[in-house]
Amino acid sequence: MNTDVDALTAIALGLAAIATVAVGAYGGRLSRTTSDFLVASRSVGPRWNAAAVSGEYLSAASFLGVAGLVAKYGADALWYPIGFTAGYLGLLLFVAAPLRRSGAYTVPDFAEFRLNSRAARLTSMTVVVVVCVLYLIPQLQGAGLTLNILLGAPVWVGAVAVGAIVIVNVVGGGMRSITFVQAFQYWLKLTAIAVPALVLLGVFLTDRAALGDPVPPRVDQATTVNVTTPVTMTVPEVDGLLITGTLDGADVDAAPFPSIGTHEVGAGSVIRLEAGAATPVVDGAPTTGEGWIASGGGLGGRQPLFEVLSLIIATFLGTMGLPHVLVRFYTNPDGRSSRRTALAVIALLSLFYLFPTVLGVLARLYVPQLLITGTSDAAVLLLPAAAVGGLAGQILAALVAAGAIAAFLATSSGLLVSVAGALSTDVLRGRVRDFRIAALIGGVIPIGLSLAASSLELSRTVGLVFAVAASTLCPLLVLGIWWRGLTAPGAVAGLIVGGVSSGAATSLAIAGVVSNDVLGGWPAEIIGYPAAVTVPLAFATMIGVSLATRRRVPDDLARTFARMHVPERLGMGIERLPSE
User: Fold this and answer.
1) How large is the average pLDDT for residues 308-317?
2) Diameter of the chain by CA atoms?
3) Sign of CA dihedral 31, 341, 59, 302
4) Would you say 464 and 530 are in contact if contact means Cβ atoms under 8 Å apart?
5) What's the whole-model pTM score?
6) CA–CA distance from 207 to each of 67, 276, 386, 395, 574 (Å)?
7) Extended strands (E) in 147-265
8) CB–CB of 374/455 below 8 Å?
9) Band of the pLDDT at 577, cuts 50, 70, 90?
10) Of residues 567 and 504, which shows the higher confidence score?
């Protein structure tokens, strides 16, 4: 890589990291009490909170993964940004205000408040920790990928660096500190993705050669692709392709592909594409323009309708169960502010997701070689240099790098606050010191897991975590807020069934069982996209067990529901403060 590019990128990454620590330190000066660390003393207004929510929600999957999936799968991949945004509509309608009025500090606190059950609290605490840890893994993997691509650093460096910065910020100031950080990082991420997208769109519109038929994707100059992991790819044309390495189990040296169709390429192979050659694509991705533009092709599996349906369920309902998102609504002064926050978040996310979609379309044109191995998460990072080049391309690439590191830092900070809040109040004694200890422990463990886990596409991994949230905390909140019949045994049973089923599927997928073709057919589809099965199962379990244990409904249910649903101006929603 060019030394000047390395230096410029390193400077951008360093400035983003320094700004993050500085803003966090500024906010941390105001953190004194347990309330400051857990919910910023419930003093965050809707506009500021909306920017902070958006900042932590726009993770590695949003900044890098969405563009990569759009480049690879086309129209069906648009369900990711649609679902990520639309999930807030459900949160706005069904959860935000009642949850804030409950006076809870964490989701486990809400479970105990609603069900008057210590078992429900401990079970939900376990789920919160599991969801947050699973969600932290792709953030840290994305950081490692980014530094590896841009600077050539070992993958572990990015994961450890981001993890360390996040731990410092959260330990130093908790929720009050990261509120400042996340609001700042939303605007940094928006700038970092909007400016390159608009510049590249301008390049595309002025490049008459690019306005012809862009698919199947073709390289415009001689290109060499190194295959680092075994991959199954579809070859649309054989002209201009040579491979050295392992092809369909045989060793070859500068050999052409024998035929159009599907081929197995081994790790360590090198593919040479002549200028104008059609780019092979990873198996399951469309090879023609018609297949890429049209919906119904799915996301690389054999059951496209099931994949899309499951993705819709996971993203639409999973937002309501994400602990790091839910905890931000506890920081609003009242239920009305919570609704305004959710509404503003929808607008901010809708604006942001326009740009990764544009970059995904352009990536198929300017960096089609990424489709060969499926490493399309790198598209946003490599696009500026490929499409613009020169000093302008270097500056755009550096800006993108700063936005990417901000994405990892913001989301990881929110997740770590949720883990620390749950552990400090339910396992430890709930003091400021306990919060800091829990944040340190909760930050170190995911770093190790991220280095051990296999790497799926970032949006795929996050989609799996959404499935876990949709199968556990979403049913607990929706039924707990709106159905009087929910009982503690029903909630616990639903959390366990939904958590075990979706968690097992997610763990197998992240471990590479699906991608390594250990399983096939419907088992592989359900493991890769579990929400369509696990979410109805969790709801049915909660409802069924609650009906069977209807005598366990809390005695003070009427007062609890009044507290959640009667506006604050009528005297409800009194604060429930933890011990300082």
Assistant:
1) 93
2) 79
3) positive
4) yes
5) 0.84
6) 21, 16, 13, 21, 61
7) 223-226, 231-235, 241-247, 250-256, 261-265
8) no
9) very low
10) 504
